[in-house]
Design a protein that fits this description.
The structure is a single chain. It contains 20 helices and 4 strands. The longest helix is centred in the N-terminal third of the chain and has 31 residues, at about 1-30. Helix content is about 65%, strand content about 5%. The chain has helices at about 1-30, 40-55, 65-85, 105-115, 125, 130-160, 170-195, 235-240, 260-285, 290-315, 320-325, 350-360, 375-385, 400-420, 430-455, 460, 470-485, 500-525, 545-570, 570-575; strands spanning about 205-215, 220-225, 425, 425-430. The protein has a two-stranded antiparallel ribbon with strand order 1-2. A two-stranded antiparallel ribbon has the order 3-4. It is mostly helical and about 575 residues long. Helix 14 (about 400-420) crosses helix 19. A hairpin with a 2-residue loop joins strand 3 and strand 4.
Length: about 575
């Protein structure tokens, strides 16, 4: 049984690497303005967009102007998305006549999708109209993902350029990302998903006869059910590719109309990490040292593989209650084996556990199983992946620039060990860069710990919990970890749709998104002015196995020091209490 599980995981990872290398080269060419196979078709459209928006692409922005553009751009879409939700009842494409979204839920959802978090405190099929899903959420899935990638390339230019000021043009970057990368990939993905049975239409919800009537406790007999339809495939494609994760339906990719079979499961799961993994190779290509990109990819890949393995093993071993203290063999060929609670039987433990690792390593948040039903340690690993700062691939763009923050910390620590001024890619790392790197790396822990700490002492939050004790605390901790990590996945079992939780998690998402962005751009603005330093005998090599190991150590150390006390009160306490 376990042999087949490892074969499945190896298959997913090998396909991911192959696709990431190919896509990484393509992205590098696009962002450098080089010709690609889509140039003849899309270049006239690109120029038309610049003309329509009156964008002068030769106008290079310094880091402050780039940061203001990011904030203004995101702010405009914040207002638009909020307005669409609170006016939903009078807008078109609302065949079910759904009402306007309550203000606090609209604020939470807007904060969520603008920050590329896509945390959802609502059921999509019973709360949002087709218009809101398409023109609000799906559009934001494109632009929020593009913002993250654009900021990454501003940082890359900070490393490449020597004694300059400009980091590129934000509007040109966003246009190229959406036009050449996100739209083509999403178009192909959505067509394939729709061909496999994922809903893509404008029909109203349909009533069907149940195969077997349901009798309620009061004697009421229910003979019909409602099948929610709608334009799901087009949103699902970009929700995965853009590491957004917001589901069209409440149960996300566990829903048979979002993820009907193993073909769609593989496509959606690989899409989660495709662009974040590809950007590692893009980074190496564009700084003209592919070894650096491979080293960062290796650090991410090692942690991802270990995390995936840990989840699979814990779910396959199940719990003492399921195995009846090891007297029942849960790994035989005659039964599904392991902990199948909360998992879809069409996917099983291997595909569910791998998805769980992928979606929490990236700041994606889509799920094909309910994490609340995982074993204590199986549910702790996804939390840790988010608490590390979403840098094990992480979100599109933001994962890599977050990892580069840890790289700066690592070379600084290594420099202290050998008594040498730290440098990376030929640029000296000085106090200013270190201060901004600390902000970049600690924004997530600050958002998570402060948010969950305040929530834990608010009496009304306890009423939102579905469980008491250690597992109940895990529900609360996971909620604020997901929001503070800009992930969006849910532990379930927690009623998040209250005024306090909506506002607090919304503010947490905004802080965890834009504080690192400003810190990243500040680092880029400082680096771009510096001169290159020649590599010498004492220069720390940042592309070998020793540096990869040191980088992993620093990432895990910061995560362990920040979150071990909280984890000890939740999943660890639950594990030892079983």
């Amino acid at each position: 049984m376990m042999t087949s599980v490892w074969i499945q995981i190896a298959f997913y990872l090998i396909i991911l690497i192959v696709l990431a290398v190919l896509l990484g080269n393509y992205i590098g060419k696009v962002m450098n303005g080089e010709k690609v196979f889509l140039s003849r078709l899309l270049t006239p459209i690109e120029k038309g967009i610049y003309k329509l928006l009156r964008v002068n692409v030769t106008d290079e922005m310094n880091w402050k102007k780039y940061a203001v553009s990011v904030l203004v751009f995101s702010g405009i879409f914040f207002i638009l998305l909020f307005g669409i939700q609170v006016l939903q009842g009078v807008l078109p494409l609302n065949p079910e006549g759904l009402k306007n979204v309550r203000w606090d839920l609209a604020f939470n959802t807007t904060s969520s999708f603008v920050t590329n978090t896509n945390w959802q405190a609502y059921l999509g099929e019973s709360t949002l109209s087709y218009f809101t899903q398409m023109m609000g959420l799906t559009v934001q899935n494109f632009v929020s993902a593009a913002v993250g990638i654009a900021v990454l390339f501003a940082l890359i230019r900070g490393f490449i350029k020597v004694q300059k000021q400009g980091l590129g043009n934000f509007y040109q970057d966003v246009t190229r990302i959406i036009l050449y990368i996100l739209i083509p990939l999403s178009l192909v993905s959505s067509v394939v998903l729709a061909s496999q049975g994922v809903s893509q239409n404008f029909k109203g919800y349909e009533q069907i006869d149940l195969v077997e009537p349901i009798v309620l406790e009061d004697g009421t007999v229910i003979e019909k059910g409602v099948v929610p339809l709608g334009p799901a495939a087009s949103q699902i494609a970009i929700k995965q590719l853009g590491t957004n994760g917001g589901g069209f339906y409440g149960t996300n990719s566990a829903h048979p109309l979002e993820n009907p079979n193993n073909v769609t499961n593989v496509i959606e799961m690989l899409s989660i990490l495709l662009i974040p993994a590809a950007l590692c190779f893009t980074f190496g290509r564009n700084i003209h040292d592919r070894r650096q990109g491979r080293a960062i990819f290796a650090a991410m890949f090692i942690v991802l593989t270990l995390a995936t393995s840990a989840i699979v093993v814990n779910e396959q071993m199940a719990t003492p209650q399921l195995s009846q203290n090891q007297t029942v063999d849960l790994t035989t060929n005659q039964q599904s084996g392991g902990n199948m609670e909360g998992k879809e039987s069409r996917f099983g433990i291997a595909a569910s556990s791998t998805w769980t690792a992928f979606t929490t390593a990236a700041s994606n948040g889509s799920v094909n199983a309910m994490h609340d039903s995982y074993t204590p340690l199986g549910g702790m690993i996804p939390m840790i992946l988010m608490q590390l700062g979403e840098v094990i691939f992480g979100g599109v763009g933001c994962g890599l620039y977050g990892m580069l923050g840890f790289v700066i910390l690592t070379v600084f620590i290594a420099g202290l060990m050998v008594g040498r001024t730290p440098e990376y890619l030929g640029k000296k790392i000085e106090p200013y860069e270190m201060k901004m790197a600390v902000v970049l790396c600690l924004a997530t822990p600050i958002a998570i710990l402060i948010g969950s700490g305040i929530a834990a002492i608010v009496p009304s939050v306890a009423d939102s919990l579905n469980n008491s004790g250690a597992h109940g605390f895990s529900e609360l901790l996971y909620t604020y970890t997901s929001a503070g990590g800009n992930n969006g996945s849910a532990f379930a079992g927690f009623n998040a749709n209250t005024i306090f939780v909506n506002i607090s998690t919304g503010l947490s998402m905004l802080f965890a998104r834009f504080a690192p962005i400003l810190a990243t751009l500040a680092i880029a603005g400082s680096l771009v002015k510096k001169k290159k330093i020649a590599t010498g005998a004492g220069t720390l090599a940042t592309h070998n196995a020793m540096f990869v190991g040191l980088l992993i150590f620093v990432i895990v150390l910061i995560g362990a020091l920040s979150f071990f006390p909280a984890l000890a009160l939740g999943p660890i306490a639950e594990f030892f209490g079983m």
